[in-house]
Input
Amino acid sequence: MSGKKLRMTDQRRVILEELEKAHEHLNASDVYERVKKRLPHISLGTVYRNLEILSGERMVKKLDVPSGQKIFDAGMHDHDHIRCIRCGKVDDIPMSPAADLRPVIEQAGSASGYLQTGCVIDFFGICPDCAGKNK
Output
């Protein structure tokens, strides 16, 4: 973050609006497909660049998934995610922060000597859609 106030261009505003409307996490191509319906002359590169800027300014969350692809989430409240190991879908986990993990987190900081500023816990499993395909 540069310390300067980010200029909210029409492109950035539309990208944010489309992410906020989404009921799932989107990659840059998904966002591009939605945004170009409203801004037909926008390029994929412009969408990707603006997603990076918005995530750098902490206006959207950028999540790295094992495929190497980045997905974006407009939900900036503290929450965790779970990923399907079959189809790759990522969903929010609607639970309060795990207070039971606080001792583990504190131990990791003291054992490493780091001033710990956060942690990421990866949850994974098989989503209901993929589980239903096995029945």
